[in-house]
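Extended Data, panel c. Modelled sequence:
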Amino acid sequence: MKFNKLKLIEPILKALEDKQYTEATPIQAQAIPLILEQNDVLGSAQTGTGKTAAFAIPIIQQLYQQEQFESKAKIKALIVTPTRELAIQIDDNIKEYSKYTRVKHTVIFGGVKQEKQVARLRQGVHILTATPGRLLDLISQGIISLNQVNMFVLDEADRMLDMGFIHDIKKLLALLPKQRQSLFFSATMPNNIVTLSNQILKNPRKIEVSPVSSTAETIQQYVYKTNKSDKKDLLFHILENKDIDQVLLFSRTKHGADKIVRNLKKQNISSAAIHGDKAQNQRQKALSSFKEGKIRVLVATDIAARGIDIDKLKYVINYDIPNESESYVHRIGRSGRAGENGIAISLCEPEENAYIKDIEKLIKKRIETVRENPYPQTDKPMNNEEKKEFEKEKQRRKNEYFTNKKKRETQGGNFKKQEKPKRFKRR
C-alpha cells in the first residue's frame, strides 16, 4: 500500500517523499491506521520490517493534530527501548518524519553525562525516547514528569526482558497515567512477553508480520564449514573480495569481538567493535564511521546490534553461529531491509554444526554450503569427555588471566607476564 493512501497529513508525506519512501511495508500498512484510530496495538515483527516508522509516523500525526504549539511542550508520547543505539536510531527517525511539523523530540540514555539531555528536556519536548535506567533516574530527580503522557510505546520488549529490565518497566507502568494509548512491539512472543503485554494493553488490536521463524526472501544465505582454528584465516580470505566493502560481523562475546578487531587491523582492514563494555561515545563514533564508510567491518554482539539500522547494508557475517536460532534471524535481518538484496555468510566450526541444523529447521530452508573453501572442516565435533576437558581448560585459563591481571594492577604493572597457556588439543 502507498503512504498517500493511509490518510497521512501533508507534512509527513513530504518528509517521506524526501526519503523516497512511497510504499508502506506490511507492518506500516497495518499499524498506522490502527494507531491513528487510537487503538492499543500488540505488534509482532522481526527486525528490518519498518517497525519504527509504523509507530513513529502516527504518533507525530496525532500530536500535530492535537497540540497547541504556542505554549511550552510537555511530554505527550513516551517511547521506551532497551539499548542506547536503538533509542538514538528511533529519535533520528522521528527527526526525519517530523521535520515539516513543529513537533519537538529528544532522546535520553545512560553512559554519558546528563547535562545536555536535561537542557534539551527543559526546552520542552512532545516525544521522548528513552532507555529505562536514565528515564527512572531523571524522574527521581524531578526533571521528568509523565503526568501528561497519553501515548506510550514499549519497543523490543523481548530484548528488554532478556536484559533484566522487567522491574524498571513495572516501576514505569506505575508512574504512567491510566488513560493512555499503549503500543507494544516484540520480535518474539513467549509467555512472559504475553503476560507483560496484558498488564500494559487494553483490548489491543494484534498485528503479526513475518514471524521470527522466517528470513527475508531478499537475503542469500551461505555457510562455510571450517575448523575453529581456521576461522580467522577464512575470514581474511572472504574479505579479499573487495566488493564486500561494508560488513556487519557478529561475535558471540565482547572479548571475542575485540580479538577479531585486533586481528583485522593487523591485516590493515579498517574495523571497530561495538558492545556493552564500550563507552557510549566510542560506540557512537564506531557506528557513525561505519555508516559513513570510514570503517569496512563493524564487529558487534547481539545486544549491541539492536538499533543498528543502516540503509542498504548488504553483508552480514556470523563469525560465531548463535546457539539460539531466533538470534540468527535477527542478525541476518540487518541486511536485505525494505526489499533490498542482502548476503549472509556464516563461519561454522564442528561444535556449531548442530546450531546450523536447528536454524534450518526454524527457517524451513537449507543454507547453501560453500564448496570452494580453502579451509574446509576436517575436525570432528568433540565427544562429551573432550567437551568436559575443554571447558575445564577454558575455565583454568580464564582464572589464570584474571589472577594475573589483578596482580599486575596491584603491583603497578611490574608483574611479569606469564607465558601464554598451551592451546587445548583434541585427542
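The CA atoms of residues 381 and 387 lie 9 Å apart. This feature is highlighted in the accompanying rendering.
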